[in-house]
Amino acid sequence: MMTFETFASAQLALLMAGFAIAFIMGAAAQKTHFCTMGAVSDWVNMSHTGRLRAWGLAIAVATLGVVVLELIGWVKADASFPPYRGGSLAWIENLLGGLLFGVGMTLAGGCGNKCLVRIGGGNLKSIFVLLMVGVIAYFMVTPFPGTDKTLYSLLFYPWTNHLAVNVGAAQDLGTLLAGAEKAAWVRFALGGIFSLWLIWLAFKSSDFRSNIDFALGGIIVGLCVLAAWYVTSNIAVNVDGESYPLSQYYGEWDMLAESEDGKPAQGATLSPQSFTFVNPMGQAVGYASSGFSSTVLTFGIMAVFGIIAGSFVWALLSRAFRIEWFASVSDFVNHVIGATLMGFGGILAMGCTIGQGITGVSTLALGSFIALGGIILGSALTMKVQLYKMIYEDEASFGSALVTGLVDLKLLPESLRKLERVD
């Protein structure tokens, strides 16, 4: 436990750790070209699985670390922000949000993390994507001025809430299979087997072994996610010899603090957590709209800044920094649509390719696996539709390209194929 004498010093440590770990992650992603959308693209369009296996390796490193550290009490994922293991399984939100995000990141040229990495590398298009995603994410969770309505409450809650399933105490695989008392040991066993399987899948592939950057990117990204879990689970404030985690201190502020000075706007953002990027983009919009008030500064916002800074520094050192702008009107339109879908989907799914695909999956939450599946399916199917529309041009309708894409992904029988296969 990292214990500080004041809340202010503990919170500063939390924020600086978020920036520092994200800085390393951003530099590593820039150096190794770690990109989850690129991983799906390589797999779908070229049958090359190197980057996909690097993503799997990152999941393995993070998951193995979390189940081990959680068993000995060094990670507290049960009380996380966002609540990955919540007892209400919002499966339709996880699935639909994942699909929307997968489509969106494909149209916008990358996921939330890649958007930030590209900003650091000089891509001005990604600044536009960041702003659009941030505004939508902000109003998905924050009421419009003068109302109590959010985009989520207007568009999704009235129908998705009824489809959520109450699974009991928690939705992680350990609790679902063995109950709360034995959950940690079952997670340790399942997480260990799952992680070792992913590691084996990665290193057995010649595609993966062909480039050291695949292993380097996967290991560093996975370790960064684990490091964030560890740090945010172990920062506390010393009060008369007793350690109070930041979220607990916030909850008992009136009894523990001498005044309201320095009290954050929200307590949930002080909980144990790791990297996710869509909600923090929304938080960054809130930070700007508050006049950059320190009371709304969060671990997630600092992570956004850290990814950009790390990518920027490595881009400069490697002379990879390049200014990029929209190539055409259609490129602009694709980014607008993509960013919009990412904003909606990332909040609805409760995370992105990193937030659910690595951080969420590392908790073994069932909803995280559903969201990850939706993201991959949405991205892969979009790429298939784009490919068939490009090859067949006016001969292929959207419907025929969609059905053919589903056949290619083996989700529909071959007899339903509408267009000749493109390899």
Task: Outline the structure in words.
- The protein has 423 residues and is mainly α.
- The chain has one domain.
- The chain has 20 helices and 5 strands.
- The strands form 2 sheets. It has a 3-stranded mixed β-sheet.
- A hairpin with a 2-residue loop joins strand 4 and strand 5.
- Helix 1 (7-32) crosses helix 5 and helix 3 (50-71) runs parallel beside helix 12.
- 50% of the residues are buried.
- The model has no long low-confidence stretch (mean pLDDT 95).
Strands side by side in the biggest sheet = 1-4-5
Number of domains: 1
Distance between the termini: 54 Å
Shape: globular
Give a brief outline of the structure.
Helix 2 packs across helix 3 (50-71), helix 6 runs parallel beside helix 17 (329-348) and helix 15 packs across helix 16. This protein has 20 helices and five strands. 64% of the residues lie in helices and 4% in strands.
Question: What layout of secondary structure does this protein have?
Answer:
Layout: E1 2-4, H1 7-32, H2 36-46, H3 50-71, E2 88-89, H4 91-108, H5 112-120, H6 124-141, H7 151-155, H8 157-160, E3 165-166, H9 173-178, H10 183-203, H11 206-209, H12 212-234, E4 235-239, E5 242-245, H13 246-251, H14 253-256, H15 278-289, H16 299-317, H17 329-348, H18 355-360, H19 366-392, H20 398-408
Parallel strand pairs: 1-4
Antiparallel strand pairs: 2-3, 4-5
Helix pairs in contact: 1-5, 1-12, 1-16, 2-3, 2-19, 3-10, 3-12, 4-17, 4-19, 5-6, 5-16, 6-15, 6-17, 15-16, 19-20
